[in-house]
Fold this sequence. Notes:
- The structure is a single chain.
- By secondary structure, this protein is of the alpha+beta class.
- Helix content is 45%, strand content 22%.
- Strand 7 and strand 8 form a beta hairpin.
- It is flat and about 50 Å long.
Amino acid sequence: MDVILLQDVEKVGLKGDVVSVARGYARNYLLPRRLAEPATPGRLGELQRRDELRARHEAQTVEQAREVADVLEQTELRFEVKAGPTGSLFGSVTATDVAEELWRSGRVRVDRRKIDLADPIKRIGRYAIPVELFTDVTAEVRTLVIPEGGELPPEEEAPAAEEEAPAEAPEGEAAPEPEAESEPAAEPEAEAEPAAEAQTEPEPPPAE
């Protein structure tokens, strides 16, 4: 059975794709959950017209693609999502989400199929997502996936903590070494005292 996906469905397709699935899967899962709709001739015609309209906004030449690439390299997308305490998302960020956010925030139209996001993002963090704009023209879009109502920790914070931890261990190990050396150092000083007394004993005869 052919259906049109209304949402990205993992391992099935992206929003707007026409896919062929088992009739039972469509009727029992995709259609009741409004994840897809039947691929009727009328709806297929609407999709074709929409795709043609969107294609007009995409780069048609290498020069246009390079201009768009310059814009994308300066773009930072932010997705605030619900996440658990370990950083796992209650959901995901997909290629369709990225394409729609690029259009919404910067009126940059890119084909979601050219967004190199093989698997949906399922954890908070910082991502660099490659976007193919034309043959041999690719740009990376900085993308922040942030917990709802929160922020990501600074990038420097985690590496700094890792650097400090090993630095402290050698200092703690080196600290006892000077103490161990100081004990034998005190013994020569004690031996020096009798030597000084030996020098003072011959002094009276010359004084007579």
